[in-house]
Amino acid sequence: MSMYRKRRSAAIASGLGLALALAACSGPPGSEEGAGAAGGGEAAEGCEDYQQFIEMGDLDGTEVEVYTTITGDEAEAQEASYEEYERCTGSEISYEASDEFEAQIAVRIQSGSAPDIAYIPQPGLLQRLVNDFPDAIQPASEEVSEKVDEFFTEEWREYGTVNGELYGSPLGANAKSFVWYSPAMFEEAGYEIPQTWDDLIALSDQIVADHPDTKPWCAGIASGDATGWPATDWLEDVVLRTAGTEVYDQWFAHEIPFNDPQIVSALEATGEILRNPDYVNGGLGDVSSIANTAWDAGGFPILEGQCWMHRAANFYGVNWQQVREDVEIGEDGDVFAFYLPSASEEKPLLGGGEFVVSFEDRPEVNAFHTYLASDVWANDKAEVSNAGWVSANSGLDPELLQSPIDRLSNELLASDEYTFRFDASDLMPGPVGAGSFWEGMTNWLSNPSATEDEVLTFIEGSWPE
Amino acid sequence: MENIRLWVEYFWEQISGFLLDAETPVHKLLLMLVAIVLFVVVMGAILLAVDRPKRVPNWLVTAAFAGPALLALAFGLVYPALRTAYQSFFNRNGQEFVGLDNYVTAFVQPEFQVVLRNTALWVLLVPTLATFFGLVYAVLVDRTRFEKAAKALIFLPMAISLVGASIIWRFVYEFRDAARAQTGLANQILVGLGLEPYQFLVNAPWNNVFLIAVLIWIQAGFAMTILSAAIKAIPDDIVEAARLDGLKGVQMFRYITVPSIRPALVVVLTTIAMTTLKVFDIVRTMTGGNFGTSVVANEFYSQSFVQGNGGMGAALAVILFLIVIPVVIYNVRQLRLSEEIR
Q1: Any idea what DSSP says for residue B37?
Q2: CB A130 within 8 A of CB A162
Q3: Number of neighbours of residue B340 by Cβ within 10 angstroms
Q4: Of A411, A437, B36, B135, whose Cβ has the fewest other Cβ atoms within 10 Å?
Q5: Read out DSSP for A153-164?
Q6: Are residues B72 and B113 in the same domain?
Q7: Residue range A223-233, pLDDT digits in tens
Q8: Domain boundary at B87, B120, B135, which?
Q9: A120 phi/psi in degrees, rounded to 5
């Protein structure tokens, strides 16, 4: 139990003590509490879906502390998604988000002030935390485990598992193998959505020939001290396409070296687009401008007709409105996305997601964790989300998703036709996945003399033994 | 026994409840009264103790005054420093002893060598250039009509936080494609002169110099203030005598001004050097340590908290500590020397 929590509960208890003394009441503390649904009793109106969580213990008047990476508009949507749960169970969710989460979570665990529940954005970080602090993180409870089995595929369960034990239940998901484009521009120019990798390159050449005052691609990878991550996604997507999922799995597990010849040729293939002065950087500058263009502004030249294609995840959808409030996402709208075509028969889908872990085993924490792993939460969240949120939860009703891009992502995530693979940099050890991989890719784009082999050898050298 | 414990707990709850959960105005006023009474009692006790004639031994007085500060230093500074040094001999999560491996890595691996090179570049350029500009400026505006306004102007950047200054300068360096209108001041000037826009923050190694310029911009004001005061303290008779001997302009500066303010110059140089060694905000805000601009303080943070490499981070912190120490010692000695002269 954290210090903070201890002090809080002491204060609450003492407050109660005073109230009781003043009222000269002799009953045991807490007996007079009872607004809303009483623990284990019958549910309030419209709370049938939440009955299963209410039955997990005396939740009324409890508080659950949640610590996450999700900030900004998305944080508001997160908080809004718990409202029904809070109303029905009487359990209060206190939400705290930080951009410094990855740095702070270990500090908070070490200092004994871990939250009740945290959303961990990378399986690699989950592994590290479980290995470094085996007593801090609770293995998933039976109820959570059941929900994960019911609503998620084996792959997703595996990402939340460390040393054979399930710790994290999947929360949100994202799909990264998308290319954003302007349907209107494509139609006007008579271009088709490319179906193979060769089509994609042929289309790029076509654009260079037809529209010499624009560039086919635009990109930006600047993101504070995480600069470089969009470029790692690029390489991962290409590795999946040119080398295949099997090599990809060996690559992130370091069964083959980071600078394996197949990865070198994948990076060269990436370079045919990202380091090609004819292809980039539409409306933003030359190749090196990719390195210091903010990742969320990398696709904006599409709206100005300066650039044709921008490879980014479904959650890039929320950025468009930074340019104009009325940017419409959809097949007939201002911007939409197509699946980044594959070079082989396989249809790989790169993606990511967050994992919910508990640091406490109090009933209200377990109930909330179970709720987050259930279809009830997934649908609650879908109802309040704008563009850019999906889940791999199979209980999610696609009709509830607000944006066409989210419906498309959900379709791809749920489909057997596509092979899902988790973002490799999130699976690699911290010094690589949150360090040299970002750094190496940034260097590859900002320094024209760095060769593919050099960059990958540098990253290989930083792999911890 | 159990009964007594329960009673104690009960009363403690009553008291802490009374102290912590004031909701009504009456309750709050009552609390205020309690606080005032407590204050009077405690202060009275202290005054009474101090007022007692010399029966208290000397060591107790010393301990009472220096003790809390020493304790705070030991707990907040000495203990963490020792622990960091200890951790630097361990692997990333502090579970495996690795000897000097982290230090070897820091000096041998090319990416860490770049970090050390950059730090050296910062420490060489910032103190010398900031002091130089500050000194020249102080001499130039000394005893002119607009001295006050001119000094305020160059001192202003000192009032801006390092992060604030970094954001301002990132706007100055902002790059746009030549085909589009520039938004950054620096590139607009280049374009105005008919040159191509330049990637100030990306093109290594010169990007380091453009980051260094930010700290010089901030620190020159500090140097100017101290040095200007020192210049004003040069006795008039020395200046007069030198003038009678025929010294003028640059010679006066070289043979009279600079030697007279030498102690102040050294203090300014070393103080800025210490600030520079610890520079973190500028690098992190402007480039995040990318494009070959990382410095020791930034790399230490990144290793410890982003990459989860505690041992390496601790080793870098120790290296930084070891580099700063001689500068601090020199600084303190110079301060003491200049005080003796006075």
Answers
A1: H
A2: yes
A3: 8
A4: B36
A5: -HHHHHHTEETT
A6: no
A7: 877 889 999 99
A8: B87
A9: -100, 120
pTM value is 0.77
Taking a C-beta distance cutoff of 8 angstroms, is the pair A408, A315 a contact? no
Domain boundaries A178-350+423-461, corresponding CATH code: 3.40.190.10
Q: Report CB contact under 8 Å: A107, B284.
A: no
Encode chain A (465 residues) as per-residue pLDDT tens digits.
Answer: 333 333 344 444 444 444 434 444 333 343 334 444 444 445 567 788 899 999 998 889 999 999 998 888 788 889 999 999 999 999 999 999 988 888 889 889 988 899 999 999 999 889 889 988 888 999 999 999 999 999 998 889 999 999 999 999 999 999 999 999 999 999 999 999 999 999 999 999 999 999 999 999 999 998 877 889 999 999 999 999 999 999 999 999 999 999 999 999 999 999 999 999 999 988 888 888 898 888 989 999 999 999 999 999 998 988 888 888 888 999 988 999 999 999 888 899 999 999 999 999 999 999 999 999 999 999 999 988 877 789 989 899 988 888 899 999 988 988 888 999 999 999 998 889 888 999 899 999 988 888 999 999 999 988 987
Dihedral of alpha carbons B133, B136, B139, B144, sign = negative
* The architecture CATH gives domain A63-174+351-419: 3-Layer(aba) Sandwich (3.40)
Q: Would A63-174+351-419 and A178-350+423-461 be classified into the same CATH topology?
A: yes
Q: Residues B40-91: pLDDT tens digits?
A: 999 888 888 777 666 677 888 788 888 888 999 999 999 999 999 999 999 8
Side-chain-facing half-sphere of A76: CA atoms under 13 Å? 4
Number of other residues whose CB lies within 10 A of the CB of residue A201 = 18
Interchain pair B21, A288: CB under 8 A: no
Tokens of B233: 């303290």
Q: Tell me whether residues A446 and B290 touch, CB distance under 8 A.
A: yes
Interface of B with A in 43-102 (CB under 8 A): 92-93
Whether a cis peptide bond, with omega within 30° of 0, leads into A230 is no
Q: Which of B13, B175, B308 has its CB closest to that of A285?
A: B175
Q: Give me the residue from A125, A289, A431 closest to B309, CB to CB.
A: A431
Read off the pLDDT band of B341 (50, 70, 90). Answer: low
Q: A431 touching B, CB under 8 A?
A: yes
The number of residues making up chain B comes to 342
If one counts the domains in chain B, the total is 2
Pairing of strands A419-422, A336-339: unpaired
pLDDT digits (tens, 9 = 90+) for B5-21: 778 878 887 777 777 77
Residue A130 phi, psi (nearest 5): -65, -40
DSSP string, A54-122: HTTS--TT-EEEEEES--HHHHHHHHHHTHHHHHHH-PEEEEEE-TTHHHHHHHHHHTT---SEEEES-
Residue with tokens 């994290």: A168
Asked whether the ipTM of the predicted complex exceeds the cut of 0.90, the reply is no
Instruction: Compute the distance between CA of residue A119 and CA of residue A169 in angstroms, rounded to an integer.
Output: 9
* Short-list A52, A46, A43, CA closest to A90: A43
SS3 A119: strand
Q: Is B181 in CB contact (< 8 Å) with chain A?
A: no
What are the beta bridge partners of residue A390? A173
Question: Is-contact B207 B175, C-beta < 8 A?
Answer: no
Sequence-ordered strand ranges (E) for A260-418? 307-311, 336-339, 348-358
Contacts of A13 in chain B (CB under 8 A): 13
Question: Where in chain A are the domains?
Answer: 63-174+351-419, 178-350+423-461
- Alpha carbon distance A236, A230 (integer Å): 10
